[in-house]
Amino acid sequence: MRFDNKSGKFLEDAIMQFSSLPGIGKKTALRFALHLLRRPETEVENFANSILSLKKDTKFCTVCNNISDNELCSLCSDKTRDFSKICIVEGIHDIMALESTSQYNGLYHVLGGVISPMEGISPSDLNLANLFTRLDQGNIQEVIFALPATMEGDTTNYFINRKIENKNIEITVLARGVAIGDELQYTDEITLGQSIINRKPFTK
Amino acid sequence: MRFDNKSGKFLEDAIMQFSSLPGIGKKTALRFALHLLRRPETEVENFANSILSLKKDTKFCTVCNNISDNELCSLCSDKTRDFSKICIVEGIHDIMALESTSQYNGLYHVLGGVISPMEGISPSDLNLANLFTRLDQGNIQEVIFALPATMEGDTTNYFINRKIENKNIEITVLARGVAIGDELQYTDEITLGQSIINRKPFTK
């Protein structure tokens, strides 16, 4: 379907804006716009205002760089968490994923990316200075690498490890192996190889 | 993935708003929100403002009910079009679909729905009074039914036909038949039946 400018520029503008969102084409953008047109004006105002305040009012935690409403995010200001552990992640979505497991009670540190010479991302582009400051302040007993299981993630792990290996901090990395529900024949050979090397005592 | 309120209420609000769009779940909504967070503030303001003006500034054509920036839409104010034909459609997206064929040069009339006793949509909920006024003003030689090929579309066609059949206006309906690219074995029997009844002289 072509989109000729026959239905006015306000609709056209909204379609253009929605189709700039990741994975959204013009047809879906039109569907969004027509959906909003049918909703009451106050609801559409709330929609637009929530987008404005998302950008204007959202802060980044001065300690861990997580998204936050205040100087300190809800995790860094939660006294019930284990302040001796820092889990290093690429982005905010990784915090959400790890928090949804309910298996970790330490703090986080959001790098905002991983080292990638291909994409021109060097260590200085990442939120690393803050990390080293946090580790220099002492009290940290364990650093957990939870970066993507990719070449770039591994490179970043090695880089950070080299900087902090003398600090008497335990450094761990997320276990790699066969995912729950995976069939062995479809598991890639590197993962399968690591999972046999790192096999564990069987527990009932 | 659960979405605990650990990344602030502004993000949460934006996720809630985006996930109210048709077909958008919480994960995609989060992706949209994080995407906007990475964009410059002016771009995000433009995004929000285009949504606001979509709702506030969009008018509906006083003649045909198409979306418009002015009193008259670009089609109804286009002197090159054939003012003797009115094509009746359910929604604005149908105008876009028909316009994209470049096969029709008349005007439109947007009903804003079809008669549906199941969903409680009666003739009085539709933009019908305006249609009858247009037809009473004369000059219209042909009305084309381009409503959905469903029970509700057919009901609406019958309803309008009964009201206007005495007005000496030619009433036509979109051809139904085998769609381009369709295989006969997968075409439903009603469509196939109609296409053999309405067969046309073969032209090379």
What distinguishing features does this structure have?
homodimer; Dna Topoisomerase Vi A Subunit, Chain: A, domain 2; 7 helices; two-stranded antiparallel ribbon; four-stranded parallel beta sheet; Helicase, Ruva Protein, domain 3; alpha/beta; 204 residues
Ranges of chain A with pLDDT <50 over ≥5 residues? none
- What share of residues of chain A is helical? 25-40%
Q: How far do the termini of chain A sit from each other?
A: 59 Å
Beta-strand residue percentage of chain A: 5-15%
Series of secondary-structure elements of chain A, N-terminal to C-terminal: HHHEEEHEHEHEH
Largest interface: chains, residues each: A-B, 61 and 61 residues
Which oligomeric state applies? homodimer
Concise account of the structure shown:
The structure is a homodimer of 204-residue chains. Chain A has 204 residues and is α/β, with parallel strands linked by helices.
Task: Give a structural overview.
The structure is a homodimer of 204-residue chains. The first copy, chain A, is α/β, with parallel strands linked by helices and 204 residues long. The first copy, chain A, contains seven helices and six strands. A four-stranded parallel beta sheet of chain A has the order 4-3-5-6. A two-stranded antiparallel sheet of chain A has the order 1-2. In chain A, α1 crosses α2 (26-38). The model of chain A has no long low-confidence stretch (mean pLDDT 89). Chains A and B meet through α1, α2, α3, β2 and α4 of A and α1, α2, α3, β2 and α4 of B.
